[in-house]
Amino acid sequence: MRIDLHAHSTASDGTDTPAELVRNAAAAGLDVVALTDHDTVGGYAEATAALPDGLTLVTGAELSCRLDGVGLHMLAYLFDPLEPELFRERELVRDDRTPRAQAMIGKLRELGVDITWGQVARIAGDGSVGRPHIATALVELGVVPTVSDAFTEQWLANGGRAYAEKHEFDPFDAIRLVKAAGGVTVLAHPGAVKRGNCVSEAELAAMAAAGLDGIEVDHMDHDPDTRARLRVLAADLGLLTTGSSDYHGSRKTCRLGEYTTDPEIYGEITRRATGAFPVPGAGGALRA
């Protein structure tokens, strides 16, 4: 089985529609793909309707969190999307995305970049606007060569010159809320130092004690030494370890299935979840 538990669609900041995402996942030879758009479940219905034979869909979201000034992302899998408290908190995060994007655009204009809200809104389309859309605008304007190059202290990285804060989850609240909604939590790319400051091992241990289920180890932003260190840390803390592409379509260079999750880990995630269940494609088997 080939299992990719981190992918984005146009419901947030990917370039594939949810339907295109599941079709591309099947074409890439995946057996399971997770739809984890930022702070939204808006792509679920379209992805489910378009699910090809033999591909299983895991519903999820990537929740925006902050701890002591450090931004981090919490992957939440198979939670009840209608659970009221988690729904309300997700909406607060989503509602703050537009004012935050407008604030970053204002900072960029003060830095001499001829970027406009109209340009960013066009790029975002119907998706939930975020930094990758602003980064894409910077690429269009020739300010940076790639989207990844926009995520530096010079531009959009946490604490960067054009960075602006938004309402975000406390990660301990995210763990509690997702668990209450029957879901499973995995901290995304915890060692991605090039994205900015990372949480400490002590903070990660505290999250594990609070009910965090796992950490994403195999990821394009982790070098081999980081992956080895995270595996040891996960074993010490009793955490599951996952691997994922963090696919964003053409917005990033990563490919669907570039990194994958062990089938036994996937099986444990599905066993722990009670809020929702993986969706097998028409004619496909649920192979958890």
- Runs with pLDDT <50, length 5+? 283-288
Principal-axes geometry comes out as: globular
Alpha-carbon Rg, integer: 18 Å
E-strand count: 8
How far the N terminus sits from the C terminus, by CA atoms, comes to: 10 Å
Largest beta sheet, briefly? 8 strands, mixed
Derived structural class = alpha/beta
The protein's oligomeric status is: single chain
Please work out how many helical segments DSSP would assign.
Answer: 10
Average pLDDT for all residues: 93
What is the compact description of this entry?
The chain has 288 residues and is α/β, with parallel strands linked by helices. The chain has ten helices and eight strands.
What would you note in describing this structure?
It is globular and about 50 Å long. Strands 1, 2, 3, 4, 5, 6, 7 and 8 form an 8-stranded mixed sheet that branches. The chain contains 10 helices and 8 strands. A hairpin with a 2-residue loop joins β3 (56-67) and β4 (70-77). By secondary structure, the protein is of the alpha/beta class. α5 (117-124) crosses α6 (131-140).
